[in-house]
């Protein structure tokens, strides 16, 4: 392969000069900066560390930038002095580089749907940085990132190779107990923001510009405070507890309204309820009464709280659930000495289901009675 007569440092200087004129990424055809066909590649050249440039990338950069020699000449960069390499084999514009910036990994690559999917699936803490047009990932994702880097042939800069998972940038701030909740304040740190969102029951207070979470999530809050170096003396007096998320269910305007502080798993459970839809005006999830049994099952599974407005419907749903479970039973305890013969298990289950449906209850002394009034019919 014929290597470019101009080095990557000089080529990047040219790319950055053109990128500075191409702030709109060629949305407007003004004859300044990169053309629409070259703008993505040109901006990648401007931001990719030169130590990660391969020979292929150097040749590709030279051929693309040579087209803009007149613009570069006007900027005092003499690209015309370095003719385009004579080798006219197809050039490879693929860029795949992992760098390290401010304690985070910076992942730069020319667009690939397969690679975007791999980044999203393999790096749960990744985020897209629109300003630098790159994916960012916290340092503790290094093992997962290395798997992707090897599989998709990424180059690593020296800074990326030196960055270890322990290199965690701390944030100035504190976590303070304020009644039943903990107020969490820290200087903006994108990595910390990703982490605080994992705390069960956390909320953002736009007025005070702080996060807060219930004391029931003290274990997660304390771990977060220690990880990011926040002052947390008042947290040490809070008893340890598992995170608790208790949604509330009310009946408003003929629909169940379900409210809870954001929790990803709980939100998915609500989304799975029949007819569930989020109301922005009500800031609640709304579910039709027709799904009362599903809502009752959700309340039981999530340890939810039922408002008095919904209590009658939910209790009725629980009774329906009991009857459904009983109807599916293949056995039950039923003793009737006066009955000739022995009932099969499924027959016993059927008799108990029928008695329950007719309003009988099992009395420990008198057996099955109609309601709780022993003067009524008794099944011996």
Strand order of the largest sheet: 3-4-2-1-5
Give a short account of the largest sheet: 5 strands, mixed
Helical content band: 25-40%
Low-confidence spans: 374-380
Average residue-wise pLDDT: 78
Kindly report how far apart the N and C termini lie: 98 Å
* SS-based class: alpha+beta
Overall structural domain count:
5
Kindly state the number of beta strands: 17
Elements, N to C (H/E):
HHHHEEHEEHEHEEHEEHEEHEEHEHHEEE
Report the portion of residues in β strands.
15-25%
Looking at the structure, what is the overall shape? Answer: elongated
Continuous helix count = 13
Quickly describe the structure.
With 380 residues, this protein is an alpha+beta fold. It is built from 13 helices and 17 strands.
